[in-house]
Amino acid sequence: MQAYRLFGQHDLRLQDEPDPDLKAGEVRLRMAYVGICGTDLHYYFAEDDALPSRPRHIGHELSATVAEAAPDVTSVSVGDRVAVFPLISCGECGECRAGHPISCERVDRSVSTVGCGGPIGGLAEHTVIPADLAVKLPDSVSLLQGALIEPLSVAATAVLRANTNRDGVALVTGAGLIGIGCALALRATGVSTVVVELSEERRKTLADIEGLTVLDPVSDDIDGIVRSMSGGSGADVVFECAGAAKAMDLAFSITRRRGRIVVIGLHERPYSMNALLVLAKELTIQGHSGESREAFEAVIDWMDRGLLPVDQWVTLVGYDRIVEDALEPSRRGRLIKAVIEVPRPR
């Protein structure tokens, strides 16, 4: 088969590789679509000293069709369309039982995530994975949408764990796909949601979605609008998805007393927090990464019910244009979500 492998900084090569062997409990997948994630950008652009574990396969946001199943597999069948939950875990340790497979105590995460050091990722014609990671898609959810389930489930996990009161107000900073995912997940759970986004182009893409209040941090009175929506108290929870110091400043000022700030955005620089303000307002500061199986399946259900209209933010990219049309423009912030269409093997 043909597969891309990353050999070093800016060195992504398409090459012939043997198909991986199929063992008991596993399925062979024929790739359909793979989303480009911030993790993939880090792998591609990181200096060699910062990421010594190359060469490696990349692409952990993927959808596929089951091409072959081991005789003992009963959860999926040949021909099923699936999305891949990428986190291999034991399912038995304390972290797994608590719904945190990303921090499974019995696996080495650096080699136990599909497309992130574990099994071959989405930038290949085939991969072989444990069958329980292949989640069957309902007829109403396309394979293209299937490649968006993993990143949206990261956002959905954050929303479900925040346990926001349906009578409250949530604020999301940043309208990349994770921020959009948080906003749509909040909308799906019935929470009044404000999205703050600096880019006029991104604000326009959200303007027609019912149930969202979309604001410009430069020209709109965010504090006044949020307080009018919340009876003067402020936001119950802020999902900080921008990875920017000004977004964190807004979060601390707009969150109500005993409210919650969930940090999802990747901050490249340290942020100085006002600990006295946290104490005075009795705030909860929560970091978030990864996804739960519960949220992964919730996203599929919301897609099935038409509650996640995400296709409009996708830029489809050809398999031979990954660097020029996906990695480079994503790095520069020109795309909300690049998705690679993987051609069928000849």
From TrEMBL:
InterPro entries, per the entry: ADH-like_C, ADH-like_N, ER, GroES-like_sf, NAD(P)-bd_dom_sf
GO cellular component labels: cytoplasm
Superkingdom as given in the UniProt entry: Bacteria
Gene Ontology terms describing biological process: butanediol biosynthetic process
Residue stretches spanning the membrane: none
Nucleotide-binding found in the keyword field: no
Keyword line: Metal-binding, Oxidoreductase, Zinc
Needed co-factor(s): Zn(2+)
Domain Enoyl reductase (ER): 8-340
Molecular function as annotated in GO: (R,R)-butanediol dehydrogenase activity; metal ion binding
Gene3D superfamilies (UniProt xref): Medium-chain alcohol dehydrogenases, catalytic domain (3.90.180.10), NAD(P)-binding Rossmann-like Domain (3.40.50.720)
Family statement drawn from the similarity comment of this UniProt entry: Belongs to the zinc-containing alcohol dehydrogenase family.
Name this protein carries in UniProt: Alcohol dehydrogenase catalytic domain-containing protein
Originating organism: Actinomadura rudentiformis
